[in-house]
Design a protein that fits this description.
The protein is α+β, with helices and mostly antiparallel strands. It is 46% helix and 16% strand. A hairpin with a 3-residue loop joins strand 13 and strand 14. Helix 9 packs antiparallel against helix 11 and helix 11 packs parallel to helix 17.
Length: 608
């Protein structure tokens, strides 16, 4: 063979079984040099496909051909890679892998404390996930490292996308990570929640507006360091424009208001503008309780009013909304602060005015990363240590009076007086029991300038936000996800589900298939009369089954279209609102026979 035969045999027959799997032997032959490969292929042609190939037969095929042990070694490695065990991952494993990868992204430079915490959490999730995969597939960790498993998952996903995988993976039935399906049950709850929001908006004299979900990406490129620019679902469209799915509504509101201005800068509309919207917003961020990558956010904004009157109106709207849901001041509170006061304090501490927004971004992290990390980040921004200490001292104030004492003689007291006025007027408005002063509420976005507020769940970590913006404009926004979580937390969801259950006025049930057409005409007659009507699509031999369907459909009455009554142009109507009766007992109730000519008028009278 031109090489030590025993070494070649040891390389080929690692298990010492004396034979090779046909697939592995074929892969080995295909990866050998040309002459060896040709000899090996002749051998394989003489062996039925799928049957093992003996090592002796391989040696015999290579007789007279020079063999370089390095070529054999390289061929074996390639063949093992191409014919080695192919991992078959489940749809859930593919999805879980993507979710873990989305938990954190390694930054180019030194990670912030938040990023470091996210990376640590991601590392732990990866370790648990890969171990679970190894257990399911019975893999040894020394042969299948975390990195090797992830590479296999990536290759598996790629093969699915390219249609190369023989065994097609099951269709992923879950929506993309961080998004939601709304089945009729969930959609009814959402519509109920939105109706509460709209009712409050209309009751307070606001007008509803909307805008495209696709926005100019430039609208969101504000001050450096804001997370929102890193979380956008943005892309270049086919015309070369840089666009994004809106991550929030405020920049769109600003754009629309600016379009209303004339050349002199005056708004061509009745001031103040009082607008509300319930837009769908998109942010690529880590999903958690009350926070998704898509959500609907209720926004209420007042444009054109200076002072705290607009803030009072919006705070009154929020508390009215909470009360309409059965949520009280014992369940939630509203933390109040003023960016105007903070700005004065920061300026008095010797921080340049153009550094105010970046400083706010850092201070807004106080409850997440703690005072030591905040101080460290402020020092990185060249804020003097004494100034950082003064800013944090202001954040620790527990009352407006304590803040006023700290500001006395150092800053303009006008902003402090505004805060005092807001709390006093809230007593007159009747919602002061919801309000709490909290100097640490800052909000990190650059357009917040005056009063800022943050609603919180007194039992947990759910939050809603609102703030004043320049123009003057004041508004708030919070998502549907967090409200639903709050309703669950407060055990109010059963009542919501009951109030939003499926309901119709009538179910029309034909006695047999021959009467399906007449039943359709009865349904049409009732709908023209303004009633909601469901049709029993398949006639039931047993009347009790028709009643059971009507019960599940939430019908108040059932209309039976039977042969004898239909001959007399009449139908039988039975009331299903009798409490405590089963579908079988309700079926025994004879009901009332009503002529078609009187049906609509009678039902309007009976159901009024």
């Amino acid at each position: 063979m031109g090489a030590d035969a025993s070494k070649v045999k040891q390389l080929i027959d690692k298990k010492g079984s004396g034979e090779l799997d046909y697939k592995l032997a074929s892969a080995l032959v295909n990866n050998l040099p040309k002459k060896l490969s040709a000899a090996g292929k002749k051998l394989l042609e003489s062996i039925p496909q799928g049957k093992p190939v003996t090592v002796e037969a391989i040696f015999k095929a290579f007789e007279g051909v020079k063999v370089d042990i390095r070529n054999v070694s390289a061929a074996i490695k390639k063949s093992e890679a191409s014919s080695g065990p192919k991992l078959d991952f489940t749809a859930d494993e593919v999805k879980k892998s993507a979710e873990i990868e989305a938990m954190a992204e390694r930054p180019k430079g030194r990670p912030t404390p938040e990023q470091a915490a996210a990376l640590k959490k991601q590392k732990g999730a990866k370790s648990v996930f890969y171990q679970a995969v190894r257990q399911r597939l019975k893999l040894e960790k020394k042969e299948w490292s975390d990195k090797k498993i992830q590479k296999s998952i990536d290759a598996f996903k790629k093969s699915l996308e390219e249609g190369k995988d023989v065994k097609k993976a099951a269709i992923i039935l879950e929506p993309p990570p961080g998004t939601r399906d709304f089945y009729p049950r969930e959609y009814a709850v959402q519509r109920w929640l939105f109706s509460k929001m709209r009712s409050v908006g209309v009751a307070f004299g606001f007008q509803e507006y909307d805008a495209p979900v696709l926005e100019h990406a430039e609208l969101y490129k504000r001050k450096a360091g804001e997370e929102i620019t890193q979380q956008m679902y943005n892309f270049i469209d086919k015309e070369g424009a840089e666009v994004t799915l809106r991550p929030e509504m405020t920049p769109t509101l600003a754009r629309m208001v600016l379009r209303q201005m004339d050349e002199a800068g005056e708004i061509r509309d009745l001031l103040p503008l009082k607008w509300f919207s319930i837009p769908q917003c998109w942010r690529f961020e880590t999903t958690q309780r009350g926070r998704k990558r898509e959500h609907y956010q209720w926004n209420m904004d007042i444009v054109g009013i200076k002072g705290v009157a607009a803030e009072l109106e919006l705070l009154a709207a929020i508390t009215t909304f909470f009360k309409s849901l059965g949520i009280t001041s014992k369940d939630v509170g509203i933390k109040i602060n003023s960016r105007k006061v903070l700005g004065a304090i920061v300026q008095a501490a010797g921080v340049p005015k153009d550094m105010f927004a970046p400083v706010c971004v850092i201070i807004d992290k106080l409850d997440k990363i703690g005072p030591e990390c905040v101080t460290a980040e402020l020092l990185e921004k060249q804020v003097p240590k004494e100034s950082a200490s003064m800013i944090l001292k202001a954040m620790e104030c527990k009352s407006i009076q304590q803040l006023a004492d700290l500001c006395e003689g150092k800053v303009d007291m006008g902003a402090v007086e505004e805060l005092k006025s807001l709390f006093n007027d809230a007593k007159s408005y009747g919602f002061s029991d919801f309000l709490i002063f909290d100097a640490s509420v800052v909000r990190g976005l650059a357009y917040y300038t005056g009063i800022v507020f943050e609603c919180f769940d007194r039992r947990g970590e759910l939050r809603l936000y609102g703030s004043q913006k320049e123009v003057p404009c004041v508004g708030f926004g919070f998502g549907d996800c967090v409200i639903v979580e709050l309703l669950k937390e407060l055990k109010l969801m059963p009542k919501v589900l009951h109030d939003t259950r499926r309901q119709v006025d009538f179910v029309v049930a034909p006695f047999n298939s021959a009467l399906f057409g007449p039943a359709c005409s009865v349904a049409g007659l009732l709908r023209e009369g303004g009633f909601t009507v469901d049709m029993l699509q398949e006639p039931q031999k047993k009347v009790a089954k028709a009643f059971s369907y009507a019960d599940r459909a939430g019908a108040k009455r059932i209309v039976l279209v039977a042969p004898s009554e239909w001959e007399n142009k009449s139908v039988t109507v039975k009331d299903l609102r009798v409490e405590g009766l089963s579908a079988h007992d309700k079926a025994k109730n004879k009901g009332e026979i009503i002529p078609l000519t009187e049906l609509v008028d009678r039902m309007k009278k009976d159901m009024s």
